[in-house]
Amino acid sequence: MASHRKEGRVEGAQALLLVQQVLNGVQLGLMLFLLSAGLTLVFGMMDFLNLAHGTFFMGGAFLGAWINATTGNVWLAIAGATAVMLVLGALLEVGLLRGAYSHGHLDQILITFGLIYIGNDTARMIWGSDGLAMLLPPSLNASVSVLGLHYSLFKLVFIGATVLIAGALAFVLARTRIGMWIRAGAADRETAIALGVDVKQLFTLVFACGAALAGFAGALSAPLLSASLGMGETILVPCLVVIVLGGVGSVAGAFLASLVVGLVDVLGRTYATALTALVVGPTHAATLGPSLSAMLIYLLMAAVLVLRPGGLMGRVQP
Amino acid sequence: MKAMIAAWLATASLITASLATTDLAAAAPAKEIRIGMITTFTTAVGSVGKAARQGVDLALKRLGDKMDGIPVKVFYADDGGKPALAKSKTDELILQDHVDFIIGYNFSNMLLAAYNSAMGAKVFTFSLNAGPKNIAGEDCSPYFFAIGHQNDMEARGIGEVLNRRNIHSLYLVAPNYAAGVEMVNGVKSTFKGKVLGQSLTKWPDQLEFSAEISQIQATNPEAVFIFLTTRYAVQFMNQFNQAGLKDRIPVYSVATFDQFNLNVVGPMSIGSYATNYWVQDLDAPANKTFVAAYKKTYGGDVAGNAVAGYDAVNLIDSAVRAVKGDISDKAAVHAALKKADFASVRGRFSFSANQFPVEDIYLQQVARDDKGEIVLKTVGKAVEQIQSDAPTACHMPAL
Predict the structure, then answer these.
(1) Does B210 reach chain A within 8 Å, measured CB to CB?
(2) Is B42 within 8 Å of chain A by CB?
(3) B229: nearest CA in chain A?
(4) Per residue in B232-270, pLDDT tens?
(5) Could you tell me how far CA B356 lies from the centroid of its own chain?
(6) What is the C-alpha separation between B128 and B130, in angstroms, rounded?
(7) Does A263 touch chain B (CB under 8 A)?
(8) DSSP state, residue B259
(9) What CA–CA distance (Å, rounded) separates B113 from B118?
(10) More exposed terminus of chain A, fewer Cβ within 10 Å: N or C?
């Protein structure tokens, strides 16, 4: 009887862990979505590969952490970082990147790769090479308990805020005229231009909003991740996976793929070692499991590309 | 084409190598002592290289840039945090700059990549921080000296501390690369309690730590062990706090907190523990001289990575003086190096048979000092005169 109860408790704890990890996965996925949404539209509309998108993320994180440390107001920090990245994105697009659209991918990669270095070194000059931590006020730095599940309040705020943004984005894209133009531009640029859509202006808007979303994601993530040099490159790689997985140019695809990547990554980190142990035994699994979990999202991407070359929700290129 | 280049390179290196040996055999004592210093000077972890160089430069300055009256020239090389670069830059130091000694290597994967090049060329090499187990064991070489530690010495010290403090269960977090695995195994080798779980995180680009924190929450250990670089330590401790774990579960760490990242990672880590082979307030005459000279030259607290650089130069100096500047006699140089006849800033210091340090490990705690600043406060010794414990005994080959 006693052992039965104990087993029940272990199963209960395992179930709670699973719920928690699913929440963690959703949270990570939503963070990836904030970045991928802008990136996929930029890539889809202008065929422009922006490697410096992660730099906006880093910029948002540093600005957020810095404004928070100076003013002590988290919301002002997040809003301020987003606004600065919006302006910076617009300026960059008009001042520098616009000229690069007609060039090939190689030139675009060189330019945006250079921007990564400029971004990192600018951040190093201003904030030093150790990065900045963003400390939450006690009211947010708490955990909430529901049915025995303890979960960070701020992560719930993160999930809520991001879902709101995703909803707003979906509304704009699906229900407004501008959204229709953007979708048209992303789906088939030439036809959209032929039908009188001012893609040039539209693109400045999309690029700036993409930068703002990345900055927002950075500032919102800073309390979890802290701001550090090179964080933009670390996050860019899974974002590219998300875009390819979801289908280039498809925001809905990016949303779906973000959640898949987030969940696969977090659940992989939690259970890969235990699952590998079933096959190769615990000794080898201790190092093999983590290596395998680090590869999971790429394996997933490869599998999807074999089955659906256009991505989950993208058009199959003729 | 590739084969041709390879053949050409091989010939070129043979020629340079033979030139180098004739060079050495000719002169006694040497006209110049050439030291190659290679470590990570750039990237986000570039501060470790900067600190190591401060130690090397400070020691040389105090020697008047001379050893036994012979001028010393240092060649600096940056491995850029890439093992392939660590190897090619090491080759460059040996073949192009003809260095007599190599100092450097912060990360084990850089050292491992460059190890065969340096050992093959029979250049005495002093690793400042990297001290992987296989080099302490089956791959040991008379030309290799570890100055800092064997990677897991501080970790083994943590296990001893946990035992003394009656902590019975533990969860471990470290990155999934050579040193990370060694740290985790090091703690486990001395810890007598139960290991409830471990997370080997993606290296070097783990995104975040939510999955790991949730597992800690679920297993509810009496203590957590971490080995993380600054960027990840900030993330981990932040999320650890937000999950409400910090006041319930003490954190023990190695190579995670130092004087310089405490302004970033300190506020969320107060009360956490760390073990170190050197502490700034260590009561040894050589340490007092070192700390005073360092503060005077560079201003501010000593960067921990400077210690091994400083000691390495003084060790080489002791050997050069012992052989009266005739560094072409490698057997004599080797015998002198093994004696470790210099005043280490760590106090009691010697080499075990595999030429790894025998030294004390100290326990420190992140705390606020009288002025309200966050510092690493020395609590006491974690373990005295710890030795390398390589699993396969090192059969040190003759020189």
Answers:
(1) yes
(2) no
(3) A130
(4) 998 899 889 888 898 899 999 999 998 778 988 999 999
(5) 11
(6) 6
(7) no
(8) T
(9) 10
(10) C
Closest Cα in chain A, distance from residue B201 (Å): 7
Chain B touched by A270 (CB under 8 Å): yes
Question: What backbone torsions phi and psi does residue A142 show, to the nearest 5 degrees?
Answer: -135, 170
Out of B202, B210, B238, whose CB is closest to A133? B238
Residues in chain A: 318
- The answer to whether B181 faces chain A, any CB pair under 8 Å, is yes
Confirm or reject contact between B230 and chain A (CB < 8 A).
yes
Tell me, letter by letter, the H, E, C secondary structure of A50-113: CCCHHHHHHHHHHHHHHHHHHHCCHHHHHHHHHHHHHHHHHHHHHHCHHHHCCCCHHHHHHHHH
Residue by residue, pLDDT tens for chain B (399 residues) are: 444 455 554 544 544 444 444 444 444 678 999 999 999 998 878 888 999 999 999 999 999 999 999 999 999 999 999 999 999 999 999 999 999 999 999 999 999 999 999 999 999 999 999 999 999 999 999 999 999 999 999 999 999 999 999 999 999 999 998 889 999 999 999 999 999 999 999 887 888 899 999 999 999 999 999 999 888 998 899 889 888 898 899 999 999 998 778 988 999 999 999 999 999 989 999 999 999 999 999 998 898 889 999 999 999 999 999 999 999 999 999 999 999 999 999 999 999 999 999 999 999 999 999 999 999 999 999 999 999 987 678 988 888
Locate A74 and state its tokens. 């988290």
**How far is Cα B304 from Cα A84, in angstroms, rounded to an integer?**
38
Return the closest-CA partner of residue A246 out of A180, A178, A314: A314
- Give the rounded distance of the alpha carbon of B268 from its chain centre: 26
The tally of CA atoms less than 13 A away on the side-chain side of residue B168 is 0
Number of other CB atoms surrounding residue A80 within 10 Å: 21
Q: Supply the ipTM of this predicted assembly.
A: 0.83
Contact assignment for A20 to B217 by CB distance below 8 Å: yes
> A20 vs B218: CB contact, 8 Å cut-off?
yes
> CB–CB of A228 and B231 under 8 A?
yes
Helix (H, G, I), strand (E, B) or coil at B157: helix
Is A149 an interface residue toward B (CB < 8 Å)? no
Residue type, A273: T
> What number of other Cβ atoms are within 10 A of residue B48's Cβ?
25
B-chain residue closest to A14, CA distance: B218
Measured between CB atoms, which of B176, B198, B268 is closest to A133? B268
**Geometric angle at alpha carbon B223, from B219 and B229, rounded to 5°:** 100
